[in-house]
Amino acid sequence: MTGAVFCMAFYNVLSRPLMQRSSALGFLTVGMGAGAVVLVLAGLAKGSFAALEHFTAAQWIAGVLVNPAAGRCGSGTVLPAPRG
Questions:
Q1: What secondary structure does DSSP assign to 21-77, as a single string?
Q2: Does the first or last residue of the chain, that is N or C, have fewer Cβ atoms within 10 Å of its Cβ?
Q3: Is the pTM above the cut of 0.90?
Q4: What's the pLDDT tens digit per position in 40-63?
């Protein structure tokens, strides 16, 4: 937990100049893309993609339909953040 706190603190300080010179959507896109690349590389290194071979058609359909909706909810585009 302490390591995660330090990582987030460094990210907060070091990413500020990048956030100020780019749009929010551009910064989000690059950040999510970098995160996706790291997760794919980690999955390849651990062999986690072998589980995909055993997915049924119903599991693939659920993944295709649920993941975009969950992403929209998490980003606040379906349910806007409360203003206060």
A1: HS-HHHHHHHHHHHHHHHHHHHHHHHTGGGGGGG--HHHHHHHHHHHHHHHHHHHTS
A2: C
A3: no
A4: 999 999 998 898 889 999 999 988
